[in-house]
Amino acid sequence: GELIGVVGKVGCGKSSLLAAILGELNRRDGEVYVSTQKEGFGLAAQEPWIQFTTIRENILCGNKYDATYYEEVIEACALSEDLDVRNL
Length: 88
Known about the structure:
This protein is mostly helical.
């Protein structure tokens, strides 16, 4: 897996690039090709998106529980301390 950041000045096209990759941008011309990836990709959008369900379900997104993956996400999101305090 790779972590890629898209950075640039306001209005330079970062969001448009990502919208094009996701197929959410109307093309005027040309083609957009995204190679098939076995594991897909994630996007941290400007607008937060969360399901009205548990933290666990928001992390798993309908997938089977995998303790290693779940703990990695908790650590990556710096949620360990918050969840320990609430005993979730």
